[in-house]
Amino acid sequence: MPKKQYAMVIDLHKCVGCAACDISCKAENNVPESFAWSNHMLETRGTFPDTRFRYIPTLCNHCTNAPCVANCPTTAMHKTEDGLTMHDADKCIGCRACQLACPYNVIYFNEDLPHRRMREDEEAAIPGCTSTGPEVAEKGETPIPVYNPGREETHPGLRPKGIVEKCTFCDHRLARGELPACVEACPADARIFGDRNDPDSPAAKALKKHASRVLRPEKGTRPNVEYIRDY
Description:
By secondary structure, this protein is of the alpha+beta class. The chain has helices at residues 20-29, 67-71, 97-101, 116-119, 133-140, 171-175, 181-185, 202-209; strands at 6-11, 39-47, 50-58, 77-79, 85-87, 108-109, 164-165, 191-195, 212-213, 225-228. The protein is built from 8 helices and 10 strands. It has a 4-stranded mixed sheet with strand order 8-1-10-9. β2 (39-47) and β3 form a beta hairpin. The radius of gyration is 19 Å and the shape is globular. The model has no long low-confidence stretch (mean pLDDT 95).
């Protein structure tokens, strides 16, 4: 067992389904518009009028037994000392073995240049008044109009064409002693983050207090994203 194992506990009783986690993740990590490092599943059960609706936030589970790591032929997908499942863009050959191995469908492949629509936008929303995407990027000296340079501290700010990408638990923020963006943005405090091996961490305390469950337990991946309670 690693000395530290970062984990996220999602309290479904508190989650209001606002998707602030999804939006904050995209902004923090410069995620392409067709990708969703932070995502959600919607479930409707029963027959009207006796129906039940569930909103289940999802993201990379940073599995202890990560099949993406086990199946990567170049060690581009690897585990860190903190228990994170990370991806080295320089080692990635774009074979997508990790994507095929992931039971949770949370790994994305860049088939095209990221944010192409923003880069090639040549029509101002209001001609003669607003700027185009490339004009904004040029003035801001950034690759795309809306860009967070903080992402570059530990990982490529924009992942290039031909490789995979996924949630990193905002490792660049963790390195600064900050919480992942999705945790900080949640207005209901439904996301609880910390070192599950530290009994004094919020995540460890939540897992001790409540019975938890994981997605697809039959896969034996030992996810480090766990869910407590329900709506």
